[in-house]
Amino acid sequence: MEIKSILNSFIDLIFPMRCIGCEDVIQSNQFLCVPCLNQLTYTHWQLNQSNAVFRALNLLCPVEAATALCIFKSNQLIQQILHEMKYRNRSEIGASLAELFVQDIQHIDGVIPMPLHPKRLKKRGYNQVEPFAKAIAENHKRPYLPQFLERTKHIQSLVSRDRNFRLNALSNAFALKQALPKGHYLLIDDILTTGATISSAVHQLKNQNQIKISVLTIAYAD
Ligand SMILES: [Zn+2]
Q1: Predicted pLDDT at 160
Q2: How many angstroms is it from 30 CA to the middle of ligand 1?
Q3: What is the predicted pLDDT for the residue at 11?
Q4: How far is the CA of 37 from the centre of ligand 1 (A)?
Q5: What would the DSSP string read from start to end of 118-140?
Q6: How high is the pLDDT of residue 190?
Q7: Contact status, residue 133 vs residue 101, Cβ threshold 8 Å
Q8: How far, in Å, is the centroid of ligand 1 from the Cα of 40?
Q9: What's the gap in Å between 39 CA and the centre of ligand 1?
């Protein structure tokens, strides 16, 4: 046994990983026990045009296809999971969730993570969407492309604002750092709620010729 793995076993013994849902001890680099994993509200939707995510987004912006892994329910496990990713930098969660996405995306030319505004990135220290988006790209052998899209508007909090305010506030909230080659890209975010952020990003990406965008999120709040 290598010293590193002896050390890791020792750390596991003192600080065992616990399931986010029920706090049972679980294997390290997992985030849920099997019963909690089975309890997640999976959509089982394909990345296509026959689901609620596509229908919601298609009203706001031109997308080729869309899907989400889970349905978001407040006060349920999926909310805790997104919270851990967002505020506790649990990057292993994103990588594990990406394993649940087993669809064929060979027609996709690259994976683009939803960027944070540089100010927010500096404050938080990480973009919570990246581990998930990166793992999707790696698992499907697609290029990972975080270098094109940037967020230019820093909006404090839109939670309490109404839908129209949010849609207006987010117009032109993104810019392209460099020209995106023509192709079909998968834009990835953690959650789709009003669709304001995602549609603003899609509009910016599609400002160039011959760009197609599909969207994948971890959760969809219906
Ligand atoms: Zn559990």
Answers
A1: 56
A2: 11
A3: 66
A4: 7
A5: HHHHHHHSS-TTHHHHHHHHHHT
A6: 96
A7: no
A8: 11
A9: 9
What pTM was computed for the model? 0.89
d(CA 42, CA 36): 12
Quick: pLDDT tens for 23-70. 999 987 789 999 999 999 999 999 999 999 999 999 999 999 999 999
Residue 170: name the closest of 60, 28, 26, 30 by CA.
60
β strands within 72-179, DSSP E: 110-113, 149-151, 174-176
197 CA distance to ligand 1 middle (Å): 32
How far is ligand 1, taken at its centre, from the CA of residue 192, in Å? 25
- Flag whether pLDDT at 156 surpasses 60: no
Sign of the Cα torsion 52, 58, 62, 64 reads positive
Percent of the chain at pLDDT exceeding 70: 90
Q: Which two tokens stand for residue 104?
A: 């064929």
Looking at the chain, the number of H-run helices and the number of E-run strands are 9, 8
Cα 17 to middle of ligand 1, angstroms: 11
- Write out pLDDT tens, residues 166-202: 556 666 799 999 999 999 999 999 999 989 899 999 9
Residue type, 216: L
| Domains identified in the chain and CATH numbers | 1-37 (no CATH), 40-220 (3.40.50)
Tokens 């944070």 correspond to 116
Position 11: which residue type?
A: I
